[in-house]
Design a protein that fits this description.
The chain is an all-alpha fold. 76% of the residues lie in helices and 0% in strands. Helix 4 (63-90) runs parallel beside helix 7 and helix 10 packs across helix 11 (225-258).
Length: 259
């Protein structure tokens, strides 16, 4: 497994460059699509909050910056989740004809996730400057927390990837589930402290990783370090196990697809 992972680096790089080039070359707005979803969501919820349509409560940083930053982190998680499923689905003809390390497909998508976040980082930096948000030394730890968030998304994605080749329902189901999942994640509101909804938000595995990443970049005070490390540990172990399952399942999946 580790030999194949190392051997897949060059192919993964080629696939990543190809996918990124195609993604922005075939789009009229290009990299603007990395900025538009967070800005649109922040605009909508800020207007609703100002009009007292919804009661968000107090946030650690100005609300528009809070929503845009949180949405960028949520998008990164969703891209990491969707990446493996999309990669194996698109590569279905190649999988049936060419023998190559399957890990290259996953690595290429993970690299694409980090590239897209690097573009979003331009918008985030502009927000920090515009709203005069102070930055503490903990900002240097943000990449560590972000990597853990991506690993959690990749874990779910690799788990679903073999099924994604066989059934289109998987991709549609991910879209449906993530559309509901975002409302159980503190993207547009602070973490609630009580009630059934608050319990569900805290039970959400994305919550401690996303909140910790946001807190390291803004306040510098981590509110739930135990939850962060528990979910991170489970993500690492889960990714390793799903990698094994992925390796075992792919030959049978490719054989079924080929037939």
């Amino acid at each position: 497994m580790w030999r194949d992972l190392l051997a897949s680096r060059e192919l993964a790089w080629r696939l990543m460059v190809r996918d990124i080039s195609a993604q922005y070359r075939q789009s009229f707005l290009g990299v603007a699509w990395a900025f538009l979803p967070p800005i649109v969501m922040a605009t909508g919820f800020t207007l609703a909050n100002d009009a007292n349509v919804i009661n968000i409560g107090t946030t650690d940083i100005p609300y528009p910056a809070y929503v845009i930053f949180s949405t960028a982190l949520w998008q990164t998680f969703v891209e990491a989740l969707n990446g493996p499923v999309q990669a194996v689905t698109v590569a279905k003809p190649m999988l049936a004809r060419v023998n190559f390390p399957r890990e290259a497909l996953i690595l290429a998508k993970v690299g694409e996730v980090f590239f897209n976040f690097a573009i979003k980082l331009i918008l985030i930096a502009a927000l920090f400057i515009w709203f005069h948000i102070p930055v503490t030394w903990t900002v240097i730890l943000v990449p560590v927390a972000l990597i853990h968030l991506v690993i959690l998304g990749t874990f779910f994605g690799v788990l679903l990837a073999p099924l994604g080749i066989l059934y289109q329902d998987v991709s549609r189901g991910i879209t449906l589930v993530t559309g509901f999942w975002v409302f159980l994640t503190p993207v547009v509101y602070p973490v609630p402290s009580q009630g059934t909804f608050g319990f569900l938000v805290k039970l959400n595995p994305v919550t401690p990783l996303l909140v910790t990443t946001r807190e390291l970049a803004t306040t510098g005070v981590v509110s739930n370090p135990l939850g962060f490390w528990v979910v991170s540990g489970l993500s690492f172990v889960g990714l390793l196990l799903t990698w094994i399952v992925f390796r075992l399942a792919m030959p049978f999946v490719v054989e079924r697809v080929s037939s």
